[in-house]
User: Fold this.
Amino acid sequence: YEDISNPDFSGWLTKRSMWLKEWRRRYFVLKGNKLYFARSGGDEPHGRIDLEDCLTVKSAEEKTGKRYCFEVATPESTYYMYADNDKEKDDWIGAIGRAIVRFSTAYAPDEEGDEDD
Assistant:
């Protein structure tokens, strides 16, 4: 059981499934260096993306042909998801980007206690 209370960021995104390439609306919860997704806000997450291994988060509108779409790339796979509007897309990219900077093994960790947000 994953404790996803008090998330750093959360909301609805439409994610492309890995195998069937179908677009499905999922409730995403960013907590620490994990991005969880569930079928609804009250459900247990059925998947997660480990941002510790994440290489990049960036716009993917041209690649997918979907507005407000972005990608989260790890060494194993690339996840595609789109937001409902430009602001939500930017907010998600920003939130995921901050998590990558804070937790990615490629970055030196900050000292504890100097959070300014």
About this structure: Helices lie at 61-64, 86-103.
